[in-house]
Amino acid sequence: MSESRTTPTATPAATAHEAKAAPRYPVTDKVEEALRISLRGCEELLPQADWLQKLARSEATGQPLRIKLGLDPTAPDIHIGHTVVLNKMRQLQDLGHQVIFLIGDFTSMIGDPSGRNSTRPPLTKEQIKANAETYYAQAKLVLDPARTEIRYNSEWSEPLGASGMIQLAAKYTVARMMERDDFAKRFASQTPISVHEFLYPLMQGYDSVALRSDLELGGTDQKFNLLMGRHLQQEYGQEPQCILTMPLLEGLDGIEKMSKSKNNYIGITEPANSMFAKVLSISDVQMWKWFDLLSFRSIEEIAGLKAEVAAGRNPKDAKVLLAKEITVRFHSAAAAEAAAQDFNNRAKGGIPDDIPELALAGAPLGIAAVLKAAGLVASGSEAARMVEQGGVRVDGTVISDKGLKLEAGTVVVQVGKRKFARVTLS
Predict the structure, then answer these.
(1) Is 260 annotated for ligand binding?
(2) Which residues form a coiled coil (predicted)?
């Protein structure tokens, strides 16, 4: 990924008049195909007619479009829910356009209020720096590094200063800001809204001015902020960007948005075995949305798979293809095959190869103490409950005695289908 350090400036007002007078470009079959790829899986593309003309202009002039995605480094890891927009960026890169991966090191200090019912605690510079350091390596697992420009919004946000911030704030009204759904709900319920939270959409919108963005991507919860970018570009005399929103990916539970805090996520740096097994755990219905948003297979190929399943093919076959594709993307083909074998081994009651090992002194030890020490249960009461439910095995044999004591030696203990440990007692 390339990293630019040049701080851009707003365009002169004349640009807006030039944009209005710009000729209409022919919409070829290639442009229509680019639009179809843009629309795949997306929630909204606004305004679609403007984006079609931008694509047509790009083809006619050979000038790539500038496509922006901003991510605040509020956590060190990216999960596959974040890759929904990254995948779309990669599709647009493959059409020949320039992608800007924007790290919101400045906006992270404000805190994004999107979807919040309370003020988000701002991060410190140290926290932001530590989190951002891992974003490079993770994002380039999806994006093409050669066609990705890395930027930090502190480049132009910090030089604004107090006077620049006041001038920027003058370009939007409080009444318009209060049209935002989360602000309106909090105001109606008399939940506090801090003044600095109004700065977040303004600063995100100013990013689009600074980067001369043609298209900005985001989740559906970012629509207000993306539209702010269009408004501010017009205020600064630029051709307004189009916006493309992608659906929020439900997590493993199939209900809530994928989130680390809800523990329903797949991290893109997770081990291959865990990643593969988690994909297979989603429902057959949810699988098709994941295909649309996460797979690089063609629309026609996915439709064919769906038809085969409707005609009687086992849906697990399709899910295995999805699990392998995702695991290959973030690991390798060999790792995906090994993960599939590991999953099949577990399904047959076998013991995986890569289980944790630990040594415990004081044999004989009660089964509850062993399970807790191995990290397979959180407490003795959970251990007892799992034994009662038939969910605990020792060397493959289900145990029913909550008072069982394990003698000196090495045993494999198992809780449920996925939790294993090899324990040596002395």
Answers:
(1) yes
(2) none
